[in-house]
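Hi team,

Below is the intake form for SnoaL-like domain-containing protein from Streptomyces phaeofaciens. Please confirm the fields before the structure is written into the shared record.

FORM ID: S-0412
PROTEIN: SnoaL-like domain-containing protein
ORGANISM: Streptomyces phaeofaciens
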Amino acid sequence: MTTAAAARTTDETVDAFFAAFGAGDSEALLGQFADTVDFHVVGAPNVPWTGSRSTKDEIAEFFGLFPQLLSGPESFEVTTRVTQGEDAVVIANCVFEVIATKKKFHNRYALHFTVVDGHIARYHMYEDSYAIHEAFTA
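The structure came back. Fields below:
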């Protein structure tokens, strides 16, 4: 852990995560995560990114799925963020299209981050898994 990473606040770490994600910078994105992460995305079994992960390799695979499966976001907006100590909850809206089915889904989701020593140690995503399931169904 670098001193700069340890000095970052929860909000600064979450901001860096979204900046790296939005820029498509996978190296910077992975750099936001701790070596071991409590990483979980709830959802339907036909949605490829659901499930639990814990290593940076597994997290890299997770984020690598999006450009393979989805068109770029038609829209993306963070609507709410609540931060208390190490925890931040972000509520956002986005619209994507599943490349294989050409179906769009509108997703209002919540992300629960826990930041420890300037790195994301917990990433739990709660999204509209039914809408996404429907978009993946031909």
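SUMMARY LINE: The chain has one domain: 3-136.

Thanks, M.
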